[in-house]
Specification:
about 1300 residues, five-stranded antiparallel sheet, Znf_RING, VPS8 subunit of CORVET complex, metal-binding, zinc, Znf_RING_Vps8
Length: about 1300
């Protein structure tokens, strides 16, 4: 039977996979000789599975790729006790991310089938016990629970069976194994503490060690985190061109690395390296090579970690391996379990003897099998991905091999170039496979979008890696020839080239591909993309005639310019072609389309680039052609006629076209060019020639606007103002332009001409003008900004004020100008004084312009001239507006308190306000305090402003005078109302609306009087109150008498309602009998019938009944609340106390320190107990008092709340202060001391007890009190009925006051 390709020895496999490139070891050198008399067990095991190969490596990942989900990364269970086929181990596969490195399958986990079979046979047939430990060196040794050690060679053949079941019965299970460095001795440790040494050459027992530690005992205590298992692992690692040992120490989820370094002097240093943090607890730690570790976490997940980058390369699930744990040994069940709890907890996750590493391989022991792990070589890792059809990931991994960024690389030898060549060949092979696979897997039927998406996921990958490998011939010749068989793939390929061409990663395309690209982009309308591609390609790869034809027909002007420039070094023909298109339209004055504007802008940019030595649209012109191109462009621009000129064509057509298209931008192009040609004599000549042509074309030409002509001379002035200027311009031309701008035939474009002239002056052109003539022309043309410019130069700032006032467009800016000039330090005091005089002269005009801004200006800069300004204003309306802004507080304005004013301006404002805005009088009187009271009263009396006068009289103290004024106003309005009702009988809607408005005025006046009476009745006696309320009542009742008999019931009802309101309000200050007596004595009602006043009397009686019931209910509620509060307060003070513990919280001794001694104890409401003496020593009293009445505080609670001082503690009392401090005696005592044995309530200080009890009471009571509810109840009327009872408060179910409203008045 031929040997399987995977049937290799363990060490030969390790020699191929180890990064350290260990030399191959001959298997014969490590053949273990047979013993003379083979044991029965060996002969039995040797007969098992004879027909099978001795060593079969099963790559579980490859065998089961068809059954694996591409995104599967989780397992259902991690219990190692479950049985299962190891061939179905689940491998984690993370989804590919563009920014995440692809590692593929790094680790090969294989079943040691021969060893696993023989372990199972030994367990089942000869009762060898379950496997408990494994070790690998030159051989593999497995210990069992019955004390046997099975030794296998590298071909998985059983060579030795050491020990017997008798040994196991005596020593227990094998708990640890170790092989020396030359593989000649085997040490076996047992669960009961014994150690045996075996000769691996002949299988003889050399020594039994029984005194390693006391028999029958185990380690008693390990001070460690019981949730983590400590791990140690050594490895020689190349560090800084030296190989040094590194110790990896792991505890919990952190791996520490310690570098051990020896100096030349012999000193040894231990250097701490960077830590590795994981999100799981590690139970096993092994090096598999100098850069990679294999970690197993508590969930039986195996992690391959790259130490330098600390990146997890791969994660495997070891669930079905069924790891062997050392729990029984750590719990020391064989010796009675005499171990610490910490060690027993650690043992739940201990698997020290289940994994063993040697020469780049790790063996793993399960309950029924053994596995071996090793790193795959680079080809295997790629093949694993290819077998799973993950071509993109395979290419990414291969490129990381090529660039040297991959982790855990095995099998790549030689120098860098040789390695790259090998990997490049492999990548080419993968690219071919990927292409064939994509074409084969393409859906033949279905939506076109599905096919496009399929190839969009594949084609860019092919292009990207071909360009990375610099194999464009492979891309365009071999791969493209396969893709063209599918039209969708071909289109996706051609469209994907754009991004690489624009990014300058692809500069040359073969002719067939370029032809297909032109056709595809043209047929699909992708002309912008085509243009972007052309301007980045090498012109040698283009069919120039074909490309130019396509580009010109589709208006791809950038591409046309690029081909002519780069392909033929022709920089003039593109300009001629563009001018031939845009020139006629511009010269004929036709409106330009969007495409025309784009073409003209491209032309300007192209000319600018050529004159600046830059290529269009990208790059630079070759240095040897820069001067030549610049001269050619100048010659082109100054041509007298174009090539296809007609008789109607103007001279210098190209300059004409550019000036008409965009004068400003063309002049900007020339300005940038003139700055770069200062040292070029030929260019300077061209520069002067162009300036002469511009003057010849534009001056005295009606086709150009003033803005265009002014722009030309502004451009010339800037050029001539430069220190190294060489241009010559006739000075008369500037005078001619001045005449043109200031003396036009019509008055059109006034602002444009002024702005142009201003720009011309600002660049220095003023030196070429006669200033007097310029000023005369500017004034004539009303160019006030020009005048301002000239005044500014002469420091005549007061004249500038006139300029602002005369300029209708800038009048509003005068205030900012004056403020800035007066505030800035750059002006002299004389100049500011001149401006101040000018402002005072134009004060009338400034007030009419904006009184608010003028007031701010006066507050800031004219505080001393306020009186003169006020006296100088003749228009009363303007004066009123100015004073309102100046004296009344305005939001955002300066306060008038900055003004040193007396009362006269405020009284003047009051007088003007009475005339123009009397409705604002009260507001002004309330906010202003600067007027004199007597004068203000006289002013309001003069203009009959009764309400304002009443306010002032009340402020003066004349309450009756103020009341008389308000009453007079009310009577006047009632008279007007009666008159309107008398004349409005049978009137329409207008009369009804007027009546409602008058009634509303009456109501407002009445409310104002009621508020006035309420406000002043607090400070006067009963008789004086009657003098206020009775005239008001008489007035309202008299008004009802006047309207009796009129048809307007709405007005009549309104007056009755207002009369009731007066009665309701006055009842709070005047007794009801007095009110009734006054009504009965009134001559209006005295001669009438009782029925006429029945409504008033019944209303007052109902009010009395309502208030009496309300008072009784309120008293009842308050008594109930008081009883409830006192009951709870007494309960809180007298409740019993239960101590938390039976010892003093200060001395920590039992409250009865001596059985026969009497000692007083204090218990607080917080549950803390103290001896009285301890509290006295700690000075825990609230203040000075006798011993029996001393108010104590809890020492522990007061200390925890910060501070022990009496004052601070009293201010911050906590709930631990005693509500009832109980003293009682401990121990037995004579009868004479009986008073000390009984519980006695200490007389606590009143303030402490009450305040603490009140806090407790407040905590018990939730929600608003009834008193707060009743306080919100006030007299009023509901919206539906007229009466004296307000609606019930919402949400107050406990409020049981139910009163019927008083009856309505009957007519």
């Amino acid at each position: 039977m031929s040997q399987s390709p995977d049937s290799r020895s363990l060490l030969s496999a390790s020699s191929q996979l180890n990064l350290m490139e260990v030399e191959s070891i001959d298997d014969k050198e490590f053949d273990i000789p047979q013993v003379d008399t083979p044991p029965t067990l060996e002969s039995i095991l040797s007969q098992m599975e004879e027909e099978e190969d001795p060593f079969v490596l099963e790559d579980t990942c490859i065998l089961n790729t068809d059954n694996m989900d591409a995104q599967s990364c989780d397992t259902s269970s991690l219990a190692s006790s479950d049985s299962g086929d190891p061939a179905h181990l689940k491998r984690k596969r993370r989804p590919l991310d563009q920014n995440t490195a692809v590692h593929g399958s790094v680790l090969r986990l294989s079943l040691l089938k021969g060893i696993s079979t023989q372990i199972a046979a030994a367990t089942d047939k000869v009762d060898a016990g379950l496997p408990t430990a494994i070790i690998m060196s030159g051989v593999i040794a497995v210990g069992t629970s019955h004390g046997l050690a099975l030794v296998f060679d590298t071909n998985q053949a059983l060579r030795l069976c050491l020990g017997s079941k008798t040994t196991g019965a005596e020593f227990g299970a094998v708990s640890a194994l170790s092989i020396n460095h030359d593989c000649s001795r085997l040490l076996c440790g047992f669960a009961k503490g014994q150690i045996t040494m075996w000769d691996l050459a002949n299988g003889k027992l050399l020594r039994t060690i029984t005194d390693a530690h006391p028999p029958g005992t185990a380690i008693l205590h390990v001070k460690s985190d019981p949730t983590s298992v400590p791990q140690l692992a050594w490895q020689f690692v190349p560090v800084q061109k030296m190989v040094n040992p590194i110790l990896a120490f792991c505890k919990g989820d952190t791996v520490h690395f310690l570098l051990v370094k020896k100096e030349e002097t012999g000193t040894i240093h231990v250097i701490k390296q960077r830590q590795l943090h994981l999100s799981c607890d590690i139970i096993s730690l092994n090096w598999i090579n100098s850069c990679s570790l294999v970690l197993v976490d508590s969930h039986e997940k195996l992690h391959v970690v790259d130490r330098p980058s600390q990146e997890v390369l791969e994660t495997l699930d070891l669930e079905q391996v069924q790891l062997v744990y050392n729990s029984r040994h750590f719990k020391s069940l064989a010796t009675g379990g005499n171990v610490s709890q910490a060690l027993a907890l650690v043992g739940e996750k201990a698997c020290y003897q289940s994994l063993s590493s040697y020469a780049g391989q790790i063996v793993c022991l399960g309950t029924k099998s053994a596995h071996i792990m090793s790193l795959r070589n680079w080809k295997e890792r790629l093949d694993c991905l290819l077998k799973q059809e993950h071509f993109t990931e395979a290419l990414s991994l291969a490129w990381s091999f090529h660039e040297g960024t991959a982790k855990a690389v095995v099998g790549l030898h030689g120098d860098s170039q040789k390695r790259k060549a090998v990997i490049s060949d492999k990548m080419v092979e993968i690219l071919f496979q990927f292409t064939e696979y994509s074409l084969k897997k393409c859906p033949e039927q279905g939506k076109l979008q599905v096919m496009e998406q399929h190839f969009q996921d594949m084609v860019p990958v092919l292009v990207d890696y071909c360009l990375l490998l610099q194999k464009a011939d492979l891309l365009f010749n071999q791969l493209y020839s396969r893709l063209v068989e599918n039209m969708v793939a071909k289109g996706v390929f051609l469209e994907s080239l754009e991004s690489y061409i624009v990014a300058n990663r692809l500069g040359h395309i073969t002719t067939p591909v370029m032809k297909d690209l032109l056709a595809h982009y043209h047929d699909n309308g992708m002309m912008d993309s085509l243009e972007r591609c052309i301007v980045h390609l090498d012109v040698t790869s283009l069919d120039i005639q074909q490309v130019v034809h396509v580009c010109w027909n589709n208006q791809l002007y950038d591409a046309v310019i690029y081909i002519f420039n780069r392909g033929m070094n022709d920089y003039i023909t593109p300009m001629e072609k563009l001018f031939s298109v845009i020139g006629p339209r511009v010269r004929e004055g036709r409106s330009l389309t969007g495409d025309d504007v784009v073409m003209g802008n491209k032309l300007l940019v192209y000319i600018s680039c050529c004159l600046a030595g830059r290529a269009y649209p990208i790059g630079d012109i070759p240095e040897d052609l820069v001067v030549q191109v610049k001269n050619q462009v100048f010659e082109f621009l100054i041509r007298l006629h174009s090539g296809d000129s007609s008789q109607k064509e103007e001279v210098f057509p190209f300059i004409h076209t550019l000036l008409h298209f965009d004068t400003r931008e063309f002049l900007n192009v020339l300005a940038m060019t003139f700055d770069d040609v200062q040292n070029d004599k030929q260019a300077l000549e061209y520069q002067q020639r162009i300036v002469d042509i511009l003057l010849q074309v534009m001056v005295d030409n009606p086709d150009f606007t003033p803005s265009q002509v002014g722009g030309l001379f502004t451009f010339l002035a800037r050029q001539m103002a430069k220190p190294n200027n060489t241009l010559f311009v006739n000075r008369n031309l500037f005078d001619q332009v001045l005449e043109f701008l200031c003396c036009p035939d019509d008055d059109s474009r006034h602002a444009e001409r002024q702005q142009v002239l201003l720009e011309l002056l600002q660049v220095g052109g003023v030196v070429q003008f006669n200033e007097e003539r310029l000023f005369t022309l500017a004034e004539k043309a009303k160019f006030y900004q020009i005048c301002e410019f000239l005044y500014e130069k002469k420091h005549l700032y007061d004249r500038i004020v006139d300029c602002y006032l005369q300029d209708p467009l800038r009048k509003s800016e005068i205030f900012s100008y004056i403020h800035n000039l007066m505030s800035m330090p750059g002006y002299s005091s004389e100049e500011k004084l001149q401006v101040k005089h000018k402002v005072l002269q134009h004060m009338q005009e400034l007030v009419s312009l904006d009184p608010g801004k003028l007031a701010d200006l006066v507050v800031w800069h004219f505080t001393d001239e306020v009186q003169s300004i006020i006296s100088g204003l003749q228009d009363d309306r303007l004066l009123f507006q100015f004073l309102c802004c100046l004296l009344e507080p305005q939001e955002g304005s300066q306060p008038a308190s900055r003004l040193p004013l007396e009362s006269e301006p405020y009284e003047l404002l009051l007088d003007l306000m009475c005339r123009f805005e009397p409705q604002e009088l009260l507001k002004f009187l309330h906010t202003s305090q600067h007027y004199r009271l007597e004068e203000a009263i006289q002013i309001t009396e003069k203009y009959h402003c009764n309400e304002a006068k009443a306010y002032l009289l009340e402020k003066k103290g004349d309450i009756h005078g103020a009341f008389a004024g308000l009453l007079q106003t009310l009577k006047e309005r009632l008279h007007v109302l009666a008159a309107e009702m008398g004349h409005g009988v049978g009137g329409g809607d207008e009369e009804e609306a007027d009546g409602d408005l008058t009634l509303m005025r009456v109501k407002n006046s009445l409310n104002q009087m009621i508020v006035f009476c309420h406000r002043n009745c607090q400070n006067i006696d009963q008789e004086q109150r009657k003098d206020l309320w009775f005239p008001l009542l008489d007035t309202m009742m008299a008004s009802q008498k006047e309207v009796t008999g009129l048809r307007d019931k709405h007005i009549s009802d309104g007056l009755k309602e207002m009369t009731l309101n007066v009665l309701n309000c006055m009842s709070s200050f005047i007794s009801l009998p007095a009110v009734i007596q006054h009504i009965l004595q009134d001559p209006v009602y005295g001669r009438g019938k009782l029925a006429e006043i029945q409504g008033l009397i019944l209303g007052m009686l109902d009010t009395f009944t309502y208030e009496q019931t309300l008072l009784e209910t309120t008293t009842s509620l308050l008594n109930h609340d008081l009883h409830w509060s006192l009951a709870n307060l007494r309960s809180a003070v007298t409740r019993g106390l239960h101590p938390r513990q039976d010892c003093c919280n200060i001395c920590l001794q039992h409250y009865k320190r001596k059985q026969d001694a009497s000692e007083e104890i204090i218990v607080f409401s917080c549950g803390h107990l103290y001896h009285l003496q301890c509290l006295q020593q700690k000075d825990c009293g609230w203040g000075p008092a006798s011993e029996l009445q001393q108010p104590w505080r809890c020492y522990k609670c007061s200390s925890s709340h910060g501070g022990r001082g009496g004052a601070s503690a009293e201010a911050n009392r906590s709930r631990s202060a005693s509500l009832a401090q109980t003293r009682f005696s401990s121990g037995h005592h004579e009868k004479g001391a009986e008073t000390h044995r009984k519980k006695v309530l200490a007389a606590a200080a009143l303030d402490v007890q009450q305040e603490l009890s009140w806090d407790h009471l407040r905590g018990l009571y939730r929600g608003p009190s009834r008193l707060s509810i009743l306080s919100e109840v006030s007299h009023g009327q509901s919206s539906e009925k007229t009466g004296f009872l307000i609606p019930a408060q919402p949400g107050t179910e406990s409020f049981h006051l139910k009163l019927a409203p008083p009856p309505l008045f009957e007519e």
